[in-house]
Design brief:
- The chain is an alpha+beta fold.
- The protein has one domain (21-198, 260-305): 2,3-Dihydroxybiphenyl 1,2-Dioxygenase, domain 1 (Roll).
- It has five helices and 16 strands.
- It has helices at 28-38, 84-93, 150-161, 211-219, 298-309, and strands at residues 15-22, 42-43, 55-58, 61-64, 75-80, 104-108, 111-115, 121-125, 137-145, 165-168, 175-179, 185-190, 202-207, 223-228, 231-238, 245-255.
- The protein has an eight-stranded mixed beta sheet with strand order 2-3-4-1-13-16-15-14, with helices on one face.
- The radius of gyration is 20 Å and the shape is globular.
Length: 314
C-alpha cells in the first residue's frame, strides 16, 4: 500500500515569506560586532553598503538596520543557526568589545538566547523538524500582546490575509501562530506584563494575493502608506468584529511582482577563517538534507570545532 501523507502539512497560506525585520540602531560598528562577528550572519555585499544602514542576511531572510534612535522589538526573533559550538565561541569573543552595552547570551533549553547591544532578544535554535527542515534562517518573530487578544489576532490574519492561523493554549498563556511562509511564523503570545510603547519597528512579508488584503484593509481604514505599485503598509491589527486595536506592528506588504522577491542572498560560512581556510568553502552550505535535520551530527561538528579553535568542545 502506498505511504499515506498529511497533505495539509505542505500548505502555505497567502503570506508566502517573512523577508525582514527592521529596527533602528545607533551604531553600525556595534551592530556589526553583534550580528556579523557574534551571530555569524552575513552583511549583504550588494545593497546598503554605506555607513548609515546595513542589511544582514540570514538564510532567505534579513535584518534591516538603519542608523537612528534604537528601537526594541516587543518580543523576540527566532533564528535557526547550525553549529552552536561555533556560535557560543563567537559570542564569547564579543564579551569584551560589547561589555559597555546590553549584550548578553546564555544557553537555555537547547537554545542560545542572545541580547543585542540595545536590548533586542534573538533566540538561536538548532535546525530541527519543528522549523520544517530550515537549515539557516528566520523561523519566527514572537510578539508580546495583551491578555485576551490571541484568538482575535488569529482571526484577523485568517480573514484578511487568507493564511493559516491557530491558537495554542497549552502553555501558561495563549499564543496565536500565524503562517508567514514555509517554516516561518508570526507568534503573538499573551502576557500580563505591561508593554512598552510602540516605537516604529516593522516586519516585511510577501503575499501572493496582493489586492485582496489591500481591499479589506482599505475598507477598515487601516492602510497607512501606499508605497508604490508593489507595496503598501499597515500598522494596526484589529478585532474585526468591534474594530478595537489589538496590537501595533507595522507590516510592509509586498507583492510577488516586487523586483526584490526571491532575490538570492549570499550567506557566508562563518566557520571559515584565515587560520583554518579551506578553498571552496567560503559560502555557507547545509550539512544535511531536510530529512536529516533531526540528526545534529555532533561528532562531526565537535571535530570541526576542535580543528578550528585548537581546544576541546564542551
Amino acid at each position: 500500500m502506498a505511504r499515506q501523507y498529511d497533505r495539509s502539512a505542505e500548505d502555505v497560506g497567502n503570506i508566502v515569506a517573512l523577508e525582514h525585520v527592521n529596527v533602528l540602531v545607533p551604531d553600525q560598528g556595534l551592530a556589526t560586532l553583534f550580528y556579523v562577528s557574534g551571530l555569524g550572519l552575513t552583511r549583504d555585499p550588494y545593497m546598503m553598503t554605506s555607513v548609515d544602514n546595513m542589511w544582514i542576511n540570514v538564510g532567505r531572510s534579513q535584518f534591516h538596520l538603519p542608523t537612528g534612535k534604537p528601537q526594541r522589538l516587543r518580543g523576540r526573533v527566532g533564528l535557526v543557526i547550525p553549529d552552536h559550538d561555533y556560535l557560543l565561541s563567537r559570542l564569547e569573543r564579543m564579551g569584551k568589545p560589547l561589555a559597555h552595552t546590553q549584550f548578553a547570551f546564555a544557553e537555555r533549553d537547547g537554545c542560545v538566547e542572545t541580547i543585542c547591544p540595545w536590548g533586542n532578544r534573538i533566540i538561536c535554535h538548532r535546525p530541527s523538524p519543528r522549523f520544517d527542515g530550515m537549515p539557516l534562517g528566520m523561523a519566527y518573530v514572537e510578539f508580546d500582546v495583551p491578555p485576551g487578544t490571541a484568538e482575535a489576532v488569529a482571526e484577523f490574519y485568517r480573514r484578511v490575509f487568507s493564511t493559516m492561523a491557530r491558537v495554542d493554549d497549552s502553555g501558561d498563556m495563549p499564543a496565536a501562530h500565524v503562517s508567514v511562509g514555509a517554516g516561518q511564523e508570526l507568534i503573538f503570545r499573551e502576557t500580563r506584563a505591561e508593554l512598552p510603547a510602540y516605537d516604529g519597528h516593522h516586519v516585511q512579508v510577501y503575499v501572493a494575493n496582493f489586492s485582496g488584503p489591500h481591499r479589506l484593509l482599505t475598507e477598515r481604514g487601516l492602510v497607512t502608506e501606499e508605497s508604490n505599485r508593489h507595496q503598501y503598509r499597515f500598522q494596526n491589527i484589529v478585532d474585526l468584529a468591534s474594530g478595537r486595536v489589538l496590537f501595533e506592528i507595522e507590516h510592509e506588504v509586498r507583492s510577488l511582482r516586487n523586483p526584490l522577491y526571491a532575490r538570492p542572498l549570499i550567506n557566508r560560512n562563518p566557520v571559515q577563517t584565515n587560520r583554518n581556510y579551506v578553498p571552496g568553502r567560503d559560502d555557507w552550505v547545509p550539512d544535511e538534507s531536510a530529512e536529516g535535520m533531526d540528526d545534529p551530527r555532533r561528532e562531526m561538528r565537535r571535530r570541526r570545532f576542535e580543528e578550528a579553535t585548537g581546544r576541546a568542545a564542551e
